[in-house]
Amino acid sequence: MFDFLRKSPPEAKSGGGPFGGTMFALSLSGSARWSARDAAGLARNGVMGNTIAYACVRKIAGAAASVPFLLYDGPQELESHPLLALLARPNAGEDGAGLFERWYGFLQTSGNAYLEAVSLDGVPRELYVLRPDRVKVVAGARGWPAAYDYCVDGHITRIARDASGFLPVLHGALFHPLDDYYGLSPLQVAGTAIDVHNQGAAWTKALLDNAARPSGALIYRGPDGAPGLTDEQFTRLKRELEDAYQGASNAGRPMVLEGGLDWKAMGYTPSDMDFAETRSVAAREIALAFGVPPMLLGIPGDNTYANYAEANLNFWRQTVLPLVARTAAALTRWLAPRFGEGLRVDYDADRVEALAEARQALWEKLDGASFLTVNEKRAAAGYSPLEGGDTL
Predict the structure, then answer these.
(1) Region at 68 (left for phi over 0; alpha for psi -120 to 50; beta for the rest)
(2) Least packed by Cβ within 10 Å: which of 31, 157, 298, 335?
(3) What's 301's DSSP letter?
(4) Which pLDDT value is given to residue 24?
C-alpha cells in the first residue's frame, strides 16, 4: 500500500515536528450524512432500526389502544349500539384494540394515519387502517381534501365521496407548521438523534470487531536528504486513507504502512472511545420527541420525576389520553353521524390502571363535598346523571 511514496518528485512538502520528519494529522472527518426522511426511510431507520424509537411507538400505540371507547346519546351512556359493536370488531380480521394500535402506531411513525370505512346501504360495516406511505391526498378546487389515492404495486385506487357527500377516509395528522395536508412525524423531528444513536452503536460494534485502535498521526520518514511529500502525493495519500479507513465499518481497521511512513498514536483512552454518554443523550432526545418520559424506557441519567409511578402518570396524562381524546373526537365528527344524530364517542379513563390512585383521590374529594348534588359529583367524575340526583 502507498507504493507511490517510493518516488520523490522535485517539488515536495517539507517540515518538521516533535517526531522529526514530515508529519500530518490523520483527519478523516467529513460532512455529516443523514438518513432519508421520507415515510419509508423514517420507518426503516427509526422504528425498524432504532430500539428507543421502536419502544416509544409500541408504548404509545399499545397504551392508547388499551383504552376502550364509550358512546353517548346526549348525556346518556349507551351500553350497546351498532357503532360500539363496529369499534369493538371493525372487520373480520382484527379486533378494535388491534386496529387502533396500528392506527396510533402509524400516527407516531409517519405523522399520519388513515382509517377507511366500508359501507353497506349507507351505513359503515367495516373499518380498515391504510398504510400512510401508500396514501396520497387529492386536493379539491378549494384546497380541501376531496379524495385519497391508495397505491399498491403501481395500481392506484381513488377513494372519493359517495352520493351523500360522505368521504369514507378519516385522516389523522399530527401538527405540521409548514404543510396543509400531512402531519409531522416525531421520527422526523428526532431524525438527527436517531442517526447519532444508530451510528454510535455501529461505531462501537466496529471498534469491538476491529480490536479498537485510537487515531493518531502519520509521519513520513524518507531517505536522508530526500524531500517531503509533494502536493500530489499528499492528496493521493489522504484520499486513500479516507477510502480505506473512514467510516464506522472501518473503525479500528489495522493499517499497513510502506514507503517511509510511520504511525504515532495520539493516545485515546477507553473513555474517549465510549459512546455510551453520547447515545444516552440521543436516546433522551428521541424519547422526548415522542412525549415518553425517558425513565419509562430505562434510560440512565434522567431525574426529572421522583419515581416511576409519577413518570408513568405524566405519560398517560400528557401523551396517551390526549391522543385518545383526539381520536374519539375525530370518530364523533366522521363516523357517528352515519349512525344517528346526537351520538358522541368518548373513552373510558376509569379502565386505566395508571390513573387509579389519582381517581381514588378525586372520588374522596367529591364524596366529602356536601355542597354538590349527586349528579354534580357524577359529572365531575365523568359519569352520566341519575334520575333524582339533582337535589342535595
Answers:
(1) beta
(2) 31
(3) T
(4) 39
pLDDT digits (tens, 9 = 90+) for 81-131: 999 999 999 999 999 999 999 999 999 999 999 999 999 888 999 999 999
Structural contact between residues 156 and 150, judged by C-beta atoms closer than 8 angstroms: yes
Q: Shortest CA distance to 60 belongs to which of 300, 316, 304? A: 316
Per DSSP, the three-state class of 379 is helix
What pLDDT was estimated at residue 65?
96
Q: DSSP letter string over 166-210?
A: ---EEEEE---TT-SS-PPPHHHHTHHHHHHHHHHHHHHHHHHHT
The span from the CA of 320 to the CA of 323, in Å, is 5
Helices (H), the chain: 39-42, 51-65, 82-88, 96-110, 186-189, 191-209, 231-245, 276-290, 308-315, 321-334, 356-367, 374-381
- Rounded to whole angstroms, how far apart are CA atoms 291 and 279? 18
pLDDT per residue over 292-336, tens digit each? Answer: 999 888 887 666 666 888 888 999 999 999 999 999 999 999 999
How many Cα atoms occupy the beta-carbon half-sphere of 239 within 13 Å? 7
Cα–Cα nearest to 298, from 55, 64, 108? 55
The C-alpha cell of 242 is what? 479516507
